[in-house]
Amino acid sequence: MASTCNELLDLCLRGEQWSPQLLDRAIAEDEGLALFSIVVERLGDLFEPRLCDVYASLFSEVIARVRPELIPRTRRFAGSTGRWPASSRVYVLSRITLGADVAVTSVMLDAAKRRYPSAEIFFVGPRKNYELFEADPGIAHRDVPYARGGSLPDRLRASEALWFDDGVVIDPDSRLTQLGLIRVCPDNRYCFFESRSFGGDADDRLPDLAARWAGDPAARPYVARRPAGGPAFDITVSLGVGENPAKRLSDDFERQLLQMVAGTGASVLVDKGSSAAERERVERAVATGMRTHDGPFAPFAAEIARSQLFVGYDSAAGHVASACGVPLISIAKGFISPRMAARWRPTGTVINGDAPDVLEQVRRALATYTFRR
To answer: Can you name the residues that pair with 328 across neighbouring β-strands?
Structure first.
């Protein structure tokens, strides 16, 4: 199944033209899921500016085949940013993944609040993402579900239903517009942060690039979650990998990691995640005396924010810790390029998950922390 999409990816990376027949086969495989996971995500994750035009050309053809009614709203090339015009209403589009909404979208929200102090500002995206910002009185919500794990037609359905008759739209490279390809408002009210090309060949972090693009060096990632109740935990832990198994190590590693964390004597809260598979992994690995969180992500984000240390794989939880200024030990694995790792790097201790001594590095990092009682 994957051979067709791998062939298509190879042509894209070489800058060669694909045949209509090859593209049709790639679209048909696994309802388009392989096209996203093998081709589309790889083109974006490499953060190579030259591949932005390749993606725009490829996915414009995909849209024309799968949702031809969207053709009048499709721009052939996404282009570069526009100025932020004056407006009394501002819509900031979700990046769909929780980590990206913390690391990138929240920077746009922060900048928009200063640029438009009297405007209504809306976070546009799924409810579970908005919950990370719902305690911010300056941010309202427009609920737009997106079938992240759905078929290609299902994913495009969100774009088909989205149109803004008023206000400025700030697009941080959102899947709601399929990375800027589908118009959701007139172009003179559209501001597009092409995160895959902005910053060129440098290795700047995405939050810093987002603030630079917004023209607001003070803009920072943040979360505004409802406060947690009860005593705070010293350490919060997440073994979540955002549906990307390449990010994790073995079951044995996870068990030893949690035993090491338990050995600090600190109080520990471990998130059970959002899937049955992740819940089972956590239950196998959790050490005696640890508490677990089983439920929506936003309440766990509130626990991270008041903890003294976060430990886990590179994940949405790690980006929450980074945004909240919580010290972290992040185990980074599964990046397909050094620039991707640099773009998504959180603030804190980052350990290469491919190193032979990951547990020893975690042990040394843990030894540097003392926990307030």
So the answer is: 310
Strands 168-171 vs 268-271: parallel, antiparallel or unpaired: unpaired
Read off the pLDDT of residues 228-250 as tens digits, 9 standing for 90 and up: 889 999 999 999 887 788 899 99
Sign of torsion, CA 254 259 263 269?
positive
* pTM above threshold 0.90: yes
**Are 65 and 217 a contacting pair, CB within 8 Å?**
no
Q: What is the DSSP letter of 288?
A: T
Supply 249's token pair: 């190590």
**Domains of the chain and CATH, by start:** 2-73 (no CATH), 89-214 (3.40.50.2000), 235-366 (3.40.50.2000)
Q: Is the dihedral of CA 246, 250, 253, 258 positive or negative?
A: positive
β-sheet with 235-238: strand ranges across: 291-293, 268-271, 235-238, 309-313, 328-332, 349-352
Residue 260 buriedness (CB in 10 A; 0-12 / 13-18 / 19+): middle
Q: Are 104 and 211 in contact (CB under 8 A)?
A: no
